[in-house]
Amino acid sequence: MSTDVVRAAEDLNPLIPHVSEIIIGLVVFGILFFLIAKFVAPNFEKAYADRTKAIEGGISAAETKQAEADARLAELEKQLADARHEAARIREEAREQGAQIVAEMREQANREAERIKDNGKATIEAERQQAVTSLRAEVGTLATALAGRIVGEALEDDERANRVVDRFLADLEDLEASRQAAPGTGGGAV
Amino acid sequence: MTLAGASIRAADSPPQPGPADFNLPPIVEVAGFGITKPMVLVVLSAVIAFGVLYAMSRRAAVVPGRLQFAGEAVYGFVRNGIARENIGAPDYHRYVPYLFTIFAFVLVNNYYGMIPFFQFPTMSRIGYPLALALIAWVVYNAAGIGRHGFLGYLKLQTLPPGLPAWIVPIIVPLEFLSNILLRPLTLTLRLFATMFAGHLLLILFALGGEYLLLHSENALAIPGGILSFVMFIAISFLELLIMFLQAYVFTLLTAMYIGLALADEH
Question: Do the chains contact at A22 and B135, CB–CB below 8 Å?
Answer without folding.
Answer: no
